[in-house]
């Protein structure tokens, strides 16, 4: 991230937004934290019901959570702890961090960690995932590094769908929050009580479960497909990918137009003869090509047809029992799709309880974009260039104030000023995706504690 | 009854089984009967096996080391036997010992049959195995967190948090359960042995049992006792009050009061702290804070830090020094400003009574200890004090080293905690809270160290009491680093 810390001008080119003074993201942050940051909602989430009057609510629970502030100049202040939402809000406004990370809940308040030595340990933490488009640089043709656009978003969209569905259907999790990271990726927070309590070993196991893409080797993605039958979880992902492949990814990324991407893709075909046959077919197609069809899709269809014809031919000549020769052929189409579009997770983030991850509703210091929630069913339609920025939100605040002024200035602004901006929709989404479902889970978790406490009480043990 | 082959006709396993049988035959009359034996013989075999298991439990329950060894042997034996069990025996065993493994009935199996088949295929299982498994499917449903290895390698079918595990894949899980249950049984038995056996029984059985155990293993306390991982600078005062023998507790008290300790005392206490598993960094932290403010930081670094690192083998000859045993400590005689050596020898009777009184030793035992010290039996005096402080009838082995005193104390405490925790867990399950009772993979493995559940309880104790005070003072630990650095960095106070 070469341009981190550089002051980027907040774009103010929207014609309907009144001319706000041009200020940098960093200069805008005090106002953002004072009026736009939904701190109460964030704290509500992280308290998991322990802010309630319930007999088993642990009033110190929130205070054992680590926050890490990144102050301007990339100064990290770790082990921040706050007793409640108000204390968090106060500190955020006072220190105005460029970024806020959320860490685990520890056995004691992070502020007291020195007192406890080795007894100070992380005890619970959401299961998190981090998917970043920079990890797709070898398969995206529209840009690289910090770049993101509508053409590469389909890669993120399909990743969200695959991981979300796997977490729900395979692992049985329900309380899952997806967030746009503000720049070139997405974050996922799994908040079920059972997910928060997973030991590192189980976190590693989940990360490995989803790690079908295992990095690169000799210019090809390592996709651990063997034999001819895929594991049902991989098959499920492949089903989602095959559909997205022809509908969005292939045309958006133009992977089969002549060029290095196309050459790289053809290397996944198991033998040179097949590559030659595909090229031959494409040449034939170009003579009689229907100009309205996307060339990437028509080329893909031809490639599929050539591979399938070859499989039929092999089966006929050598018999279906010739499993060893057929397997690479039968796998290669899926391998191409998985290699180019299967979610590429940052494994380390998921494996350890004590990894930090940027909080939702942070503002990306380079882009000014707010880390807003993403709803998996609507992820295809999500436009990373249309998310609210600190500049656009401040503009909306001014517009609302101006409107009130024009009507005589009698109306009062709402106590939470963000309700008059696009932040209201982002917060509503946060409530829909996470808080609404968590309310019941929190009650159940506290009730569980009551049952245990009652049982222990009945023991009458005097230790 | 029809003869059946070992499901897993692995040569090494078979040889091992023979060896174990021989070993068992040496101790006991009963050996495993060939599996072609008649039903009544089999029953007899099972009975003999059960008796031998319990007699051996009795023999091996008495110290942590013996328990650990016994546990390993029994688990290996169990693994081999479990692999020969037949379907009905599996079901019966699981129903009793591991009800959390739910057998998947045929209707449910049909709904996952195709996917189970695909999983086996995708793992390149052999045609034979797939065919056999699918012809007579015996699958169990377990929380996925119980099978992290299978999940990690995608070798299992997952549906809504449950893993469908074949009987073959189940064996290692059941062994883990068995291990936990034997481990708990051993701890219980050790406790009961000490508490319940009448004196005459004790006299009758004690030599027999002791000789059984001594044939294989004698505990050695010259090494370290680091199995309790909660030892840190912060926990030392509390550990000292509960678990340290008087020779070490006395040094802790003097150090704290005088903010200083002379060389002999520093060595005696320092090596002991190392022995109980205090990491070097924590040791430096502890001594530095105890010596402050009398010794400023820079003076501490110059005069004392070297010696601490030296004891940990990080300086000079890089020898790994071990803690002193009683025989060494008793011989220490220092001047008036020295506090090391054996307090039962060095303190006068009034001081000794006061010191033991502070440790809440029973009055009767204080007098016993003072009397024994007067006669010059310092180690016996220490054992009396142990009994009086821990409220145990008789310390079976006597005190031979401070580390042993500490380990025994921790073990007793951990067992009491475990009993309380297990009772609580059982009651919780009864109240319909079974789902939460240890679904993590740690739950199965926790029993490994004889009193594992107790260890966990111990470690949880300081954390539970660590509810933080009200408002947090602003933390000013500023640290610079490249973008992204905090994401990877582990907390400084953790390991
Ligand atoms: Zn792009």
Automatic annotation (TrEMBL), chain A:
Homology family: Belongs to the eukaryotic-type primase small subunit family.
Top-level division of the source organism's lineage: Eukaryota
Enzyme Commission no: 2.7.7.-
CDD domains: AE_Prim_S
One Gene Ontology term, aspect cellular component: alpha DNA polymerase:primase complex
A Pfam family per the record: DNA_primase_S
InterPro entries reported in the protein's UniProt record: DNA_primase_S (IPR002755), DNA_primase_ssu_euk/arc (IPR014052)
First and last residue of the signal peptide: none
Statement: the UniProt record of this protein carries the keyword Ion transport: no
Enzyme class: transferase
Gene Ontology MF terms in the entry: DNA-directed RNA polymerase activity; metal ion binding
Protein keywords: DNA replication, DNA-directed RNA polymerase, Metal-binding, Nucleotidyltransferase, Primosome, Transcription, Transferase, Zinc
GO BP annotations, alphabetical order: DNA replication, synthesis of primer
SUPFAM superfamilies: Prim-pol domain
Protein name (record): DNA primase
TrEMBL record, chain B:
Ranges annotated as biased composition (Gly residues): 431-453
Requisite cofactors: [4Fe-4S] cluster
Keyword tags: 4Fe-4S, DNA replication, DNA-binding, Iron, Iron-sulfur, Metal-binding, Primosome
Species per Swiss-Prot/TrEMBL record: Edaphochlamys debaryana
Protein name in the entry: DNA primase large subunit C-terminal domain-containing protein
Ranges of residues in domain DNA primase large subunit C-terminal: 238-406
InterPro entries registered for this protein in UniProt: DNA_primase_C, DNA_primase_lsu_euk, DNA_primase_lsu_euk/arc
Biological-process GO terms, alphabetical: DNA replication initiation; DNA replication, synthesis of primer
GO MF terms held by the record: 4 iron, 4 sulfur cluster binding; DNA binding; metal ion binding
Biased composition (Low complexity): 454-469
GO CC annotation, single: alpha DNA polymerase:primase complex
Family: Belongs to the eukaryotic-type primase large subunit family.
UniProt keyword Phosphoprotein, yes or no: no
Chain positions covered by the region annotation Disordered: 431-495
């Amino acid at each position: 991230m070469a341009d981190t810390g550089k002051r980027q001008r907040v774009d103010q080119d929207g014609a309907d937004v009144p001319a706000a003074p041009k200020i940098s993201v960093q200069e805008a942050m005090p106002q953002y934290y004072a009026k736009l940051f939904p701190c109460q909602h964030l704290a509500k989430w992280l308290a998991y019901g322990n802010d309630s009057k319930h007999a088993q609510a642990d009033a110190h629970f929130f205070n054992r959570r680590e926050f890490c502030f990144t102050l301007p100049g990339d100064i990290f202040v770790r082990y921040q702890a706050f007793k409640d939402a108000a204390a968090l809000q106060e500190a955020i406004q006072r220190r105005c961090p460029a970024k806020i990370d959320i860490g685990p809940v520890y056995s004691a308040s992070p502020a007291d960690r020195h007192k406890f030595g080795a007894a100070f340990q992380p005890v619970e933490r959401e299961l998190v995932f981090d998917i970043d488009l920079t990890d797709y640089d070898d398969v995206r043709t529209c840009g690289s590094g910090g770049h993101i656009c509508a053409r590469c978003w389909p890669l993120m969209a399909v990743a969200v769908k695959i991981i979300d569905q796997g977490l729900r259907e395979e692992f049985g999790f329900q309380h899952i929050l997806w967030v746009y990271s503000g720049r070139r990726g997405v974050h996922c927070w799994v908040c079920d009580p059972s997910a928060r309590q997973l030991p590192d070993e189980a976190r590693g196991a989940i990360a490995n479960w989803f790690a079908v893409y295992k990095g690169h080797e000799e210019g090809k993605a390592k996709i651990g497909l063997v034999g001819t039958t895929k594991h049902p979880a991989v098959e499920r992902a492949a089903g989602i990918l095959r559909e997205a492949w022809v509908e969005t990814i292939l045309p958006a990324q133009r992977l089969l137009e002549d060029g290095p991407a196309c050459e790289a893709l053809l290397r996944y075909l198991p033998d040179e003869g097949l590559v030659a046959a595909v090229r031959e077919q494409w040449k034939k197609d170009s003579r009689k090509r229907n100009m309205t069809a996307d060339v990437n899709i028509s080329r893909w269809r031809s490639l599929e047809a050539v591979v399938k014809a070859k499989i039929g031919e092999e089966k006929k000549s050598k018999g279906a029992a010739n499993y060893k020769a057929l397997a690479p052929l039968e796998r290669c189409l899926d391998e191409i799709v998985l290699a180019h579009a299967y979610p590429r997770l940052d494994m380390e983030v998921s494996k350890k309880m004590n990894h930090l991850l940027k909080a939702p509703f942070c503002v990306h210091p380079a882009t000014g974009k707010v880390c807003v929630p993403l709803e998996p069913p609507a992820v295809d339609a999500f436009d990373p260039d249309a998310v609210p920025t600190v500049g656009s939100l401040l503009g909306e605040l001014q517009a609302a104030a101006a409107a009130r002024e024009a009507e005589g200035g009698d109306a009062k602004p709402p106590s939470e000023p963000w309700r008059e901006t696009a932040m209201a929709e982002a917060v509503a989404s946060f409530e829909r995706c996470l808080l609404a479902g968590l309310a019941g889970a929190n009650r159940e978790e506290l009730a569980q504690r009551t049952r245990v406490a009652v049982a222990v009480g009945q023991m009458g043990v005097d230790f | 009854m029809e003869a059946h082959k070992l499901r897993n006709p692995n040569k090494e396993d078979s040889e091992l089984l023979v060896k174990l049988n021989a070993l068992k035959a040496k101790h006991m009359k009963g050996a495993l009967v060939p599996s072609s034996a008649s039903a009544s013989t089999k029953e007899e075999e099972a009975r003999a096996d059960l008796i031998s298991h319990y007699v051996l439990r009795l023999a091996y329950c008495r110290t942590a080391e013996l328990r650990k060894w016994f546990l390993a042997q029994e688990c290996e034996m169990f693994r081999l036997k479990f692999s020969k069990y037949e379907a009905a025996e599996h079901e019966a065993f699981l129903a009793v010992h591991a009800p959390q493994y739910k057998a998947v009935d045929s209707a449910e199996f049909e709904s996952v049959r195709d996917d189970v088949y695909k999983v086996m295929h995708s793992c390149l299982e052999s045609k034979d195995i797939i065919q056999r498994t699918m012809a007579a499917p015996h699958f169990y449903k377990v929380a996925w967190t119980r099978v992290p290895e299978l999940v990690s390698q995608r070798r299992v079918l997952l549906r809504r948090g449950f893993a469908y595990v074949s009987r073959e894949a189940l064996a290692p899980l059941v062994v883990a359960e068995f291990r936990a249950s034997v481990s708990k049984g051993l701890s219980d038995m050790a406790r009961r042995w000490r508490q319940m056996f009448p004196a005459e029984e004790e006299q009758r059985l004690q030599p027999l049992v002791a000789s059984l155990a001594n044939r294989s293993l004698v505990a050695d306390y010259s090494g370290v006792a680091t199995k309790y991982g909660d030892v840190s600078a912060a926990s030392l005062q509390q550990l000292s009050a509960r678990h340290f023998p008087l020779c070490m507790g006395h040094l802790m008290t003097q150090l704290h009061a005088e903010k200083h300790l002379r060389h002999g005392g520093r060595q005696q206490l320092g090596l002991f702290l190392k022995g109980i598993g205090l990491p070097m960094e924590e040791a430096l932290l502890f001594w530095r804070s105890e010596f402050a403010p009398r010794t400023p930081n820079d003076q501490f670094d110059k005069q004392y830090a070297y010696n601490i690192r030296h004891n940990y083998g990080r300086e000079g000859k890089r020898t790994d020094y071990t803690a002193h045993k009683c025989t060494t400590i008793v011989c220490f005689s220092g001047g008036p400003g020295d506090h090391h050596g054996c307090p039962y020898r060095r303190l006068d009777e009034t001081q000794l009574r006061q010191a033991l009184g502070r440790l809440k030793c029973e009055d009767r035992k204080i007098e016993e200890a003072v009397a024994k010290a007067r006669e010059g039996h310092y180690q016996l005096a220490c054992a009396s004090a142990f009994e009086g402080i821990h409220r145990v009838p008789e310390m079976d082995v006597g005190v031979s080293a401070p580390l042993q005193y500490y380990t025994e104390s921790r073990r007793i405490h951990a067992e009491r905690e475990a009993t309380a925790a297990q009772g609580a867990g059982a009651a919780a399950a009864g109240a319909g809270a079974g789902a939460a009772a240890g679904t993590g993979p740690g739950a199965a493995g926790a029993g490994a160290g004889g009193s594992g559940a107790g260890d966990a309880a111990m470690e949880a104790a300081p954390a539970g009491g660590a509810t933080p005070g009200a408002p947090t003072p602003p933390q000013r630990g500023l640290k610079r680093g490249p973008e992204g650095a905090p994401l990877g960095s582990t907390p400084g106070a953790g390991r």
